């Protein structure tokens, strides 16, 4: 059996990342509203930007992982992955940002 061509894998990665990006956005916006009781677009941007996602790996791959989890296991499983994997990193970075003022 022939292996899939690289362009096919790249396309699939992008498709999964596109879905994962939407799931991540929904999680982060809901999380911010629960935690702060208000809209905070700057925090949302910090949590979803490629610079932050690169702390866990290639940003497209991170979003693709979220997309795959969502498609296979549903929204709650994808949210749990974000909560358990990305949120602790974000909380740590936010604490550092507040200490250093950056």
Task: Tell me what you see in this structure.
This protein is mostly helical. It has one domain (20-94). The chain is 82% helix and 0% strand. It is built from 5 helices and no strands. Helix 1 runs antiparallel to helix 2, helix 1 (6-36) packs across helix 4 and helix 4 packs antiparallel against helix 5. The longest helix has 31 residues, at 6-36. The radius of gyration is 15 Å and the shape is globular.
Q: Decide which structural class fits the backbone.
A: mainly alpha
Largest sheet: none
**What proportion of the residues is helical, as a percent range?**
over 70%
Question: What's the total count of β strands?
Answer: 0
Written as H for each helix and E for each strand, in order along the chain, the element string is: HHHHH
In what range is the share of β-strand residues? under 5%
pLDDT averaged over residues = 93
Tell me, what's the shape?
globular
Number of helices: 5
Low-confidence stretches: none
Q: Calculate Rg over CA atoms.
A: 15 Å
How far do the termini sit from each other?
52 Å
Tally the structural domains.
1
């Amino acid at each position: 059996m022939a292996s899939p061509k690289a362009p096919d894998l790249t396309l699939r990665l992008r498709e999964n990342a596109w879905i994962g990006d939407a799931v991540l956005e929904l999680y982060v916006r809901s999380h911010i509203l629960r935690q702060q009781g208000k809209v905070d677009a700057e925090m949302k941007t910090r949590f979803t930007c490629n610079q932050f996602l690169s702390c866990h790996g290639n940003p497209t791959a991170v979003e693709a992982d979220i997309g795959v989890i969502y498609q296979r296991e549903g929204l709650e499983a994808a949210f749990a992955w974000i909560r358990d994997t990305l949120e602790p990193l974000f909380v740590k970075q936010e604490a550092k940002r507040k200490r250093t003022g950056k």
